[in-house]
Every structure is written in C-alpha cells, then in structure tokens.
Amino acid sequence: MDLHFGDSKPTDEERAAVDALLGPPASAWEGADDRTDTDLRWARGGREARARRDLLLPGLHAVNDRIGWISEGALDYLCRRLTVPPAEAYGVATFYAMFAVKPRPAKVLHVCTDLACAAHGSQALCASLEERLAPAGVPTAGAVWQPSPCLGLCERAPAALLIQAGAAEDATERDGTTESAGATEPPPRPYATAVIAPATAEALVLATAAPEAAPAEPAASMAVPQAGQPGLTLLRRVGVVDPYSLDDYRAHGGYAALRRAFDIGAAGVIREVADAGLVGRGGAAFPTGRKWGATASQPAHPHYLVCNADESEPGTFKDRVVMEGDPYSLIESMTIAGYAVGAHRGYLYLRGEYPRALRLLQNAIDRARARGLLGDDILGQGYAFDIEIRRGAGAYICGEETALFNSIEGYRGEPRSKPPFPVEQGLFGKPTAENNVETLINVLPILTDGAQAYAAIGTEGSTGPKLFCVSGNVSRPGIYELPFGASLGDLLDLAGTPREVRAILLGGAAGGFVRPDERDIPLTFEGTRAAGTTLGSGVVLVLDDTVQLPRMLLRIAEFFRDESCGQCVPCRVGTVRQEEALHRILDRTGAEAAGDIALLREVGRAMKDASICGLGQTAWSAVESAIDRLDVFESRGAE
Asked: Which of 18, 116, 368, 578 could form a disulfide with 154 if both were Cys (CB 3.0 to 4.6 A apart)?
C-alpha cells in the first residue's frame, strides 16, 4: 500500500501527544521522519498496525486537545504510527466541526445559535461579541469565537462552551462535587473547558481572557425540576446520590439489576426486556428485546455493544443530565446489555461537547473496574465485559448508528446502506446492538421491578416512563419524567408556558410543529403519529410570539445544510436548495414566494423519498409542518 507521506515534520509536543495515546514507537521506522529515514512511503506495520485504524479519531483528539489544531506534520506522524493513508486521515479530520487543520488560538469559544438559544437572544449575543471581541472566526487576544450548533445546554440558554487546548484540567468538579473518599484521581487532561450558561457578552469576554474565572457549572440536578420528588423511576437518583461515588450508587439500589440479570441468565434478560415492551427512545421506537435477541443469535463473533451518547438533536439534553447526575446507572445498564447479547466489549460514543459527562463516566468506569463490576470476572460470575469511551467531535450525522460505527472505526462518519443490518454486520463488521442512553437505563427498572410492573406504566403501545426535554420560552425548562400517555398539556403545565404561545416544536429540528391549541395530543409514539407529528427523542420546544418563526425555520435549514455528510445527492443538494428557498421567501411576497413554497415541497419530497438516512429524510419535516400546520408563510404565498 502506497501511503504517500509528505515532508512535514511534527513538533516535539505533537509527537508527545500522539505517543501518549499510542505508546512509544515500536520500531525506528514507525517514529522516524525525513531526518532519519527517507523511504517511508510503504506500509511497514502490516496487519497489526492497520488493525489500529480505530485509534485515528482518539489520535486526532489527542493532538487537537494538546495543540488546538492539527498540523500537516502531526497528521503525517499519526498516520505513520497507524499506517493510515494521510489523504484518508485528512478527510476524517476535516469531517468534524471541533477539529481544525489550520492554525488557530488555543482558546476556542463555541457560542450556540441553535433553536433554544435563538429563542433566548443568541443572535443579539453574537452581535455583541462582534463588537466587543472580533467577528466570528477572527482571532483576537489569544482566542477565537465561532457560532455553534446545539451544545445540549438548552435549559440554560443561551449557552457557550470554551475549550482551551494545552491547559491541563484535573478531575475535581468545579461545582463543588468531589471524588469519593480514598478514590484515586484520574490523570489531568491536556485541555480545559468552561461552560458559560446562561451566557452574557460580558461573561464570555471575561471567560476568553481568564477561563478560570468562568462561573462554576451547576449540578446536573438543576436541570431536573422534579429532582428529589417521589414517584420518579429514571431520574430518582439525580440530585440524590453523589455522581462520583460507587458506594452511594449501590446504597440507592445500584447493581441490583445486574445481580438479577445473572440470576435469570442472558436469555431471561432478553425475555424480560421483550415482555416489558421496551422500545428505543431515540425516535425510531424499534423493540429493544427484538434487537438484542437478533444480536445474541448471530453465529459470528465477537459481538459488540454500542451506547449512542451522541445526542446532537437541537433541543435534546436528557442523556447529558443522566450521564452527569447518575453515571453509574449507564455503566450498569451497558453491562447488562452486553451480557444479554453475548458481547465482551462495549463502546460508549460520547458527544465531544460534553466534557463533564466525560469526566464522570470515566470515573464511573474506573471505579467499577476496580471493584470487579467491569473486567474479566464480573461479580465472580465468569463473565468478562469492559467499556471504552470514544469521543465524538461535532458531527450530528454520527447519531445515525452506522455513521457512528464508521466514526469509531476511524473513517468519516457517513451512514452505510442497509441491509446488512447492525445486528448482522455492525461495528468492525460484527453483530452489534446499539442503543441510546435513555433506552439502556430503562432496563434497570425492568429487571428490578419485573416486566409486568414496567409494562403497566404508560400505554399498550408505549410502555414505561419517558424523559422529555422542555426548553424555549417556559418558566421551568429542564428534563421531565412522565409516564407515556400523559398529554402535551400535562407537560406544559409542569414547565409553565407563557400566555402567548406561538408554536411548539416536538422532536427537535427533525420533528414537527404543532399549534398551541393542540394540548390534548397524547405523548406516545402512536399518539403523536395519529396527530400527524412525531415524538422523536422527546424534545418539546415552546416558542412565544416574540420569536420570528420564519427565521427559526431558516436556522433549521442551515443546521441540516451544515450537518449533511454529503454522501447522497438528495440530501447534499436538497438541504442547500431548501435553505436558498427559505432565504428568498423571507424577502418576497405574492406569486414569487408561492413559487418557492412549491419548490420547497418538491425538494422536501425528494429528500424524504431518496435520502440514504434519517437526516435527509426528516430535513424537511419541521418546515413542512410550519407551512401546513401553522400557515407560517400564508401572507407571503397569497396572490
């Protein structure tokens, strides 16, 4: 294989970043540059080196975290170590929004401009930053700021995330939470972060100058208005237990479900999950028991378990709150799922924009491993299972399961054609069960309370409790837990809606708008489907009459244009045409606007019918619902 390495050389610091991940070079050629070896165009690592391709994304993170950007020399060195063609690695590095392949300051401020933050003045915030700092993307005083898609901080909108490369950050929580007594602290990471939410221009200017002066991030329980209330199932430990403490988790019922799983066996676990009626909580609502059973029955080995924690749907933040407030519940749930499907390795694919969740989850994995709850012989049952966290780097498309697999494997995060389905050929071409965070943690009450008790919650078609992400113009934004079957009005009453509601977006950018008088819609998969909308992942974004809906639709179109992976023509071209038409409609009326509305419909149908994955298939949904349900362009489309 001709790898075509370039002549650029890594700096000592770039080498150190790569070597800290991969270890020292195993041979002289692996770490050589043109000063010591001029013939490095040929793959010399053989099968062993090529088998490490999946470390490409962690390697890119290592350099970006340490330096702030990925130079040609650093990329070249990483490719030599992994025997990856530099052209392919460049394609991967440029696929992700959090990486840079051109020089930039070590401090990068990501300012959310997506739906919930737009409803809370992010446009004015960005305008103020342009006056006080510099235009977006222009370095100033050792920092640069840039608009960002949803950061998963919708309950505290408007939000911003500051990342400082090369500044070591220890494991101590800045909100006052501490490690449990006697615990060994994880090593510092070569970057530091600060979350500023709700954000003001003054706070952001101060944070870019002195990140350590940024206000402490509030505890995860602050995002749960119901925290501590009786009757909760999925959120019952958030705000009650110390998220760092394994002992505290076990004192509140932790690992009872895993013990029962071992008692009833892998087949028994799958039967319980199927009998409970659990379906996926990411939006597709596929029966979890059926997925697990299909994976477990595959003759090919090894089997894998993948947790999709890359929640990037605008308006979604429930998984973040669970991972920050009750991280051990996810580790236990993944262990049970791995046992059920016959997997000995689990991958937790986490949003790159969730630094605190990363700290807490890594701590939970380390503590569980140290106590025999992960590793070669879990609880003395002879079952081996371990979990590895893989960080995403800012790509909405990686929420699609096969795109996520490609990302883990070290390729561009582009969806694969189906069939074959992941239960047959998933991660590394092997049988794989993939579930999101909320789906997995539902397994705990199923095993501790029994399938029958779980199925008694909710409705026949949608069983169990559901987490809803409520944001926008409400009095009490946050994560709410309700049984399936509660009405939209029930949820809005808990959150406190304004007097003049203009529209409600269900399911996020890929969802649909409903009118404020449709409060009786039942919050179930079948109920929202019958009402002509979608439940999606549980986003409920409330917009009052101060929000300009046409501008909001344009932001949705911009989001899908930016996040399209570009692999298939209907999505690559359709998302651009959709945005262009919406731009024109904002400036036109009468027959001209009517023509663009007709074009929107035509483009929308093409994306829905012909796109390879759900991104393109749903990119038109919110716009369509606003036109048909809210008459948002009625005046512009009139003759």
From this structure: 116
